[in-house]
Design goal:
The structure is a single chain. By secondary structure, the chain is mainly beta. It has a single domain, classed as Porin (Beta Barrel). It is built from one helix and twelve strands, in the order αββββββββββββ. Strands 1-4-5-6-7-9-10-12 form an eight-stranded antiparallel barrel. The protein is elongated. The relative contact order is 0.20.
Length: 213
């Protein structure tokens, strides 16, 4: 990633073009993890419907630009299983984590007076953070709790993918408002459950809105 970051800032200096910066937020249009239940097992997943972060862009000649974002989202998944008869054998599992996304995109703006449609494409890196899995089991009325940051279904804590997007750039006084839809195809799954209950999605869609100066 370091060479691409250097290229990003070098381009801004070389062309002496305006550099805009600001905040970006939005919501995932797809879940981060899929959950599939089984006999005597209930599984669920939650993708929090927010994405927050910061953005910066070097505006180059001929409608071109280079954008780099830092985006964060949060998700969780859980399962419960067990059989109760003369003895109890129950287990609850709760997993929470954050995901940091680092897209670097080439952008092209079409001509317009106030509204400029644009398309962008590039690469992105994703890094999990704060991953915690807590397992609570009850066997013969004895409760045991354990936690780990490396659950069995964790396959990759980082992954890289390709990004395509499009939207409009609306200039309101000194602020640029940029609603956009992005699609990302990750090169590898971050979660692959041996039991088949939890698997992360390689295809991701998100709606984002940037506010830059």
């Amino acid at each position: 990633m370091r060479p691409l970051c250097l290229l990003f800032f070098s381009a801004a200096a070389a062309f002496s073009q305006p550099f805009s910066y600001g905040v970006k937020g939005g919501m995932p249009m797809t879940d981060f993890v899929d959950a599939v239940g089984a006999q005597n097992i209930n599984a669920s997943t939650t993708t929090n419907r927010y994405i927050v972060g910061v953005t910066g862009e070097a505006r180059l000649p001929f409608g071109l630009g280079v954008e780099m974002d830092i985006l964060y989202r949060h998700f969780s998944y859980s399962s419960s299983s067990g059989v109760s008869n003369l003895t109890s054998n129950l287990e609850n599992m709760d997993t929470t984590a954050g995901s940091w996304e680092f897209p670097i995109l080439a952008k092209y703006r079409f001509k317009g007076k106030i509204v400029h449609p644009f398309v962008d494409a590039g690469v992105a890196w994703d890094k999990l953070s704060g991953l915690t899995q807590t397992v609570t089991s009850v066997v013969n009325s004895i409760t045991k709790t354990s936690s780990t940051s490396s659950p069995a279904e964790l396959a990759n804590s980082t992954t890289r993918g390709f990004v395509l997007g499009g939207g409009v750039d609306v200039k309101a006084l000194v602020i640029h408002i940029t609603p956009e839809v992005r699609f990302t195809r990750w090169g590898a799954k971050q979660f692959i459950d041996p039991t088949g209950m939890f698997n992360s999605k390689q295809s991701q869609a998100e709606f984002l809105v940037g506010f830059t100066f």
